[in-house]
Amino acid sequence: NAGVTQTPKFQVLKTGQSMTLQCAQDMNHNSMYWYRQDPGMGLRLIYYSASEGTTDKGEVPNGYNVSRLNKREFSLRLESAAPSQTSVYFCASSESRRDEKLFFGSGTQLSVL
Amino acid sequence: AQKVTQAQTEISVVEKEDVTLDCVYETRDTTYYLFWYKQPPSGELVFLIRRNSFDEQNEISGRYSWNFQKSTSSFNFTITASQVVDSAVYFCALSEAHTGRRALTFGSGTRLQVQP
Question: What's the CA gap between B115 and B14, in Å, rounded?
């Protein structure tokens, strides 16, 4: 059982380049999330999708866009990468209820030079 | 707005010592859910426990125990007889039932190092 799969695992970008982080889950979950993890900051929510067809901004959405392609897939796009976006990115999924635990992917380590 | 504070940035103990990780939360909702996650060196976050705001009973699972006190807005995590495998970053998180975002808010994490 794959759970939550993120690609790529590592990426190095130059300032101004664009890229898309891919995330897919095979647990038939309704809700999906993108978090970033920075030292001393914990995990901060970028965007989330409570259900297929909906997306909402989280705590730190600036510089990012998302697409909930279907129930399985939720992608995160950096249109013009900046050094401040150097971080570890985690995708997660859960059932739609607010008391449900999250299942996390293994993370993407992104460096923007 | 919901907020989770983990004041301990890093804790170092020697194997077999007991250690408590503190978590203090803020919420305006009357119904909410608290979580603890573990992030081992491999990087992937692992769910440890979930507690709802109506259940203040402490929970014990093997060497792990959790103390939930609504009066002090705290949800502390104790590891008894720590082991090297407990070395990880531990995150406390909060979800509100009726208000705020439909997503978890995490604390900044506590890095636990257990020395042999």
Answer: 5
Tokens of A102: 């999250």
What's the burial of B41, exposed, middle or buried (CB within 10 Å: 0-12/13-18/19+)? exposed
Greatest C-alpha distance within chain B: 45
In chain A, what residues touch B97 (CB-CB under 8 Å)? Answer: 98-99
Could you tell me the mean pLDDT of each successive run of 10 residues in chain A, 113 residues long?
90 97 95 92 92 92 95 96 97 82 94 97
DSSP state, residue A73:
B
Q: How many C-beta atoms surround the C-beta of residue A74 within 10 A?
A: 28
Collect all residues of chain B within an 8 Å Cβ-Cβ radius of residue A99. Answer: 33, 50, 52, 95, 97
Report pLDDT for B78: 96
Amino acid of residue A110: L
Contact by Cβ (8 Å): A4, A23: yes
The three-state DSSP-derived secondary structure of chain B is CCEEECCCCEEEEECCCCEEECCEEECCCCCEEEEEEEECCCCCCEEEEEEECCCCCCEEECCEEEEEEHHHCEEEEEECCCCHHHCEEEEEEEEECCCCCCCCEECCCEEEEEEC
